[in-house]
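We append the chain.
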Amino acid sequence: MIRENPSDRATGRTLRGIGTRMLLSLAVLAGTMALAPTAASAGTTGAAVAAASTCRDNVKTFSRGGATKASRTITLRLCVHRDGDYLWATAETLSTPKTTSADLFYHFVVNLRLERNDADFASASDDQTGWGNYDGSANYLTGFDTPYYVSGATGGWTADGNVSYDIIGDGVNDLTWSLTGSPVLN
């Protein structure tokens, strides 16, 4: 029998999170993602709120200048999920192969927030610099979750975030990619 470590719930590293990432990964690879809130999740508070999710993709191409050029297109999918009174946000990063083996980033950190009506309820960050500089010839997919937040309140829940990054050889220091949040989970 597989058991969750209770301390993992606080970090967002749970079996449910792993399962969510696996399902989202399969959906990304299959090119399908049609998750939406159910009618049972309508209202302002919920004693029996159904499971639901909403997601949005953000796409950006990063290019390195200088003598050793490199570029990569990254898709960041932000999702907000509900299962009963448990709410959490996920960030899935899908990247195309780099055009050369040269490193592209000094750093690439994804910051994720679970929000309700633009107020933060949970957050997490993931340093994905290693994946951003990965030299593989195939696409890669990685992801992480916020910790769970327990609430019966419905309406206004979103996943939002940004990426702090620094491209090697561009002559500019830290930049921020402000992501468009997920659609509202009602």
Notes: The chain has a mean pLDDT of 81.
